[in-house]
Amino acid sequence: MLGVTSDMSIFDPASCVAAEFYVSLHELMSTLEPSSGLVWCAVGVLHHACRNPAARHALIHTYKFAPILTRLLGANIIQDKKIRVLQLLQVIHARIYIYIYIYIYIFCNTVIFSHFSICTFKIHILTVSLLLAQKFHVI
Asked: With bands split at pLDDT 50, 70 and 90, how would you rate the model's confidence at 92?
């Protein structure tokens, strides 16, 4: 029902009901397995909620949905679902961030399935930190 509403004000994070909804949705998505159909309904609702600019901003900066969404990328799910998550991340973030998430996803999978030298690992960490415009000290 929420995924098809045309009244985007229901997703406004300034309302108490919407704020409670986002907190509950965050808790639900954090506890469910990525294979759960309910998680994918929630992804659809979040995608629809992003049509409200205030909600789009709050999903990342207030409610911190990015880690939950990127966790879905690492799950053993079909390609179409990974594309849905990437599309949602693209809508939520500025376009540059989608490339950061893809890079981190590929990097994490590479680390899991191969053995890097410490030098190569440091280069990847520095690349990620530069992409995020943060200053990490890598020893």
From this structure: confident
Q: Reduce the secondary structure of 46-70 to three states and give it as a string.
A: HHHHCCCHHHHHHHHHCCCCHHHHH
C-alpha dihedral sign at 29, 32, 38, 108? positive
Q: How far apart are CA 26 and CA 9, in angstroms?
A: 19
Taking the model in full, what pTM does it have?
0.64
Domain boundaries, the chain: 2-93, 94-139
Closest CA to 52 of 101, 5, 100, 20: 5
Lowest mean pLDDT among 24-28, 41-45, 52-56: 52-56
Q: Which two tokens stand for residue 34?
A: 């990525």
> In 3D, which of 89, 38, 100, 90 has the Cα closest to residue 65?
89
Report d(CA 75, CA 34) in Å as an integer: 6
